[in-house]
Amino acid sequence: MKAVPFVAVILVMLIAGPPFLASYWVGLLTQMLIFALLAMSLDVLLGYTGLPSLGHAGFFGVAAYAVAVLSTTYHAGFWTCVMSGILIGTLLSTLLGLLVSHVRDVYFLMITLASGMVLWGLSYRWIPVTGGDNGISGIPRLDAHAGLPFAGPVAFYYVTLLVFVVSASLLALLVSSPFGFTLRGIRENELRMKSLGFNTWLHCWVSYIIAGAFASVSGVVWAYYNGFVSPTYLDLTASSELFLMVTLGGPGTLVGPVIGAGAIVLLKNVISAYTQRWPLILGTFYIITMFGAPQGLWNLGRRRRASS
Amino acid sequence: METSSACLVLEGVSRHFGGLKAVDNVNLTLQPGERHALIGPNGAGKTTLFNVISGELRADAGTITLNGADVTRLAAHQRAARGIARTFQITKLFPNLTVIENMLVACEALDRRRFTMHRPLSSCADLVERATNLLDEYRLSPFRRELARNLSYGDQRKLEVALSMAGRPRVLLLDEPMAGLSSGERDVMQALLRQLDPSIAVLLIEHDIDVAFGFAERITVLYQGRVLTEGPKEMVSANRSVQESYLGLLVE
User: Fold this and answer.
1) DSSP string, chain A
2) Contact B167 A197 (CB under 8 A)
3) Is the CB of residue A21 less than 8 Å away from at least one CB of chain B?
4) In terms of residue numbers, what domain contains B143?
5) pLDDT digits over A75-129, tens only?
6) Do residues A141 and A155 make contact, with C-beta atoms less than 8 angstroms apart?
């Protein structure tokens, strides 16, 4: 509940700020929101259920590819693309979830990593559909495709903000719900959960499906934002960067991943303008954070506030 | 012994790890409301037997009957749904949840709303009420907003028992609830155990013979995985082989 004033202030800034910003910064904010949603969806698994997934960018990428393929090769309409993107990503997480929700810890990590690699391999090698290394360009602009009366980066930003706020609200409700607390219980002590009467793998499966669904939503928005998809968006680097966003910001909270995603997107873009060695600086930043705030930036702030 | 009314019946239950027969051909019957203690030296197989009864481990042989239904092949969560609850020798709480959240999770375990996603858990008034009442009962109310990991060890052991009672079990397995407690805390725990619902059957693992004999009317002595003797406590305490193999060892 301590998060409420903080979230309110940030939200007001997010709503009121962009018309006064240069379009570069509006674009950067849009990216932050998309990745913040993606990081929150991973946090349902990583922070709330305690399942460390290293293949989460796969759902993001598959949804983005679905939009790209349908809108370019098949000239499908806006809602067909959006719904298919979300549906295909969710269906994939449902099937993969059946497999992975029976394993834990490092085995979960390895099997999700492997599944992410398979998806990346598909995008890279299934050239007739995905275009291979070249990716797919020419995804129609959102305003044209959806028939919106307004265009431009600020308009796109507000659409993204709407999707983000709705998704974040749903996720906030989820994690405070009876089901959400069963996920925390599994994270804290799965054996105890079983002996209390919870069929824990079923809860893990549902958690995996939900995480995949929200990742797909962010993938769909990304496809329209970027206008282009390529294998780099679902490779291991993308998944581990996502993992870093969550652990950096504060797993087991919803604000944490948003902070983490914001920080990493910002650093990546700002530092890469000055030096090619930006991963070095990002890595240093990450190591310092892990020493100074092992529970993530947001939890550091919370502990400070609690003790003062 | 009459088994038709029994709530838990073990017949020829065995479990081995490789060549080690941790639990070997154990027969045990619990009547509703019975207070039964399971004693035996370290390594006798007491906790393994608990794990086999609660379903964390499968029995290699024998059958386990709960309220007339065969549960031998059921998973732990299915047995819990049929009325078995347990505590653990090594405390198993939800350390980073608050005390009231620990209790709420336990209370929703056998409730259909455990899959509800569209409203906060804190808005389920009857679950909150039940959790609050249990905390009152176990004298944990002052700590309801504390994280479970910040509780004293004695309070953690109380919460351990309180969690297991949330699902209104018919059979309760208590694995050394007094272990590691100070003498003051032991008195509190013993008082709590005496106040347990008299209609449920309780099986207690306890190393302290005085506690075991003070709590239970029937005793089972386990030794190297086998039942050495079983019966009313007067009979067991008079049994010479028990005195030699177990009671005697402790007296020394």
Assistant:
1) -THHHHHHHHHHHHHHSGGGS-HHHHHHHHHHHHHHHHHHHHHIIIIII----S-THHHHHHHHHHHHHHHHTS---HHHHHHHHHHHHHHHHHHHHHHHTT--HHHHHHHHHHHHHHHHHHHHH-HHHH-GGG-EE-PPPHHHHHT-S--SHHHHHHHHHHHHHHHHHHHHHHHHSHHHHHHHHHHH-HHHHHHHT--HHHHHHHHHHHHHHHHHHHHHHHHHHHSEE-GGGGSHHHHHHHHHHHHHH-TTSSHHHHHHHHHHHHHHHHHHTT-TTHHHHHHHHHHHHHHH-TT-HHHHHHHHHHH-
2) yes
3) no
4) 93-167
5) 999 999 999 999 999 999 999 999 999 999 999 999 999 999 999 999 999 999 9
6) no
Question: For residue A2, what pLDDT band results from cuts at 50, 70 and 90?
Answer: low
Which of B145, B167, B189 lies at the terminal end of a domain, its last residue? B167
**B92 with A189: Cβ contact below 8 A:** yes
* pLDDT tens profile B180-237: 999 999 999 999 999 999 999 999 999 888 899 999 999 999 989 999 889 998 888 8
Q: Would an 8 Å CB–CB cutoff place A169 in contact with chain B?
A: no
Task: Report how far residue A278's alpha carbon sits from residue A262's, in angstroms, rounded to the nearest whole number.
Answer: 16
**Mean residue pLDDT across chain B:** 92
B51 shares a domain with B2: yes
B201-205 vs B171-175, strand pairing mode = parallel
Determine, for residues A178 and B167 on separate chains, whether the beta-carbon distance falls below 8 Å.
no
Q: Do B117 and A188 touch (CB under 8 A)?
A: no
Question: What is the nearest CA distance from A228 to chain B, expressed in angstroms?
Answer: 35
Q: Say yes or no: B106 and B231 in one domain.
A: no
Inside any domain, residue B160: yes
Entry pTM: 0.92
Q: What is the CATH number of the domain that holds B210?
A: 3.40.50.300
Name the residue facing A197 among B81, B117, B124 (closest C-beta): B81
Contact A176 B95 (CB under 8 A): no
**Chain B positions in Cβ-Cβ contact with residue A184 (cut-off 8 Å):** 94, 96-97, 101, 105
